[in-house]
Fold:
Amino acid sequence: MTNRLVTMYLVAATCMLPLTAFAWGPQGHAVIGAIADNNFGPAARAQLASIVGLPLEEAATWADCVKDVKVTNGHAYYQPDPAYYQACKVFETPSGITAMEDYAS
Structure:
C-alpha cells in the first residue's frame, strides 16, 4: 500500500471513533444553551425572556437540578448535590425548589 492509501485509511478510521462531546450534565447543557442564546435574534430573545425568564444557558440545567430531588414515603425534598451546586444556584429559591419538588413527585 502506498503512504497515501494508509493515510486515507487512518483518517477514515479516526473519523469513525466515538468521541466524548461532554454534552451531558450541567456543563454540557449550559454550553448548548449558550450556543442557542447566541443564535437568537432580538425578537426571539424577548419572547424567550417572557416565557422562561432566564437565558437558556441557565435554564438548560434545570433538569439536572431536578435529579437532586429525592422522594421518600411520597414526600419530595430537594437535596443538592455538591457536584452540581453551581449550576443549580439559580433555581435554589423557595419557588424554584417547590417547582422542582412538584415536578419530581
In short: Residues 90 and 96 are 8 Å apart (CA to CA). The two ends are 62 Å apart (CA to CA). The mean pLDDT is 85. Helices lie at 3-16, 25-39, 42-51, 56-59, 62-66, 85-88, 94-104.
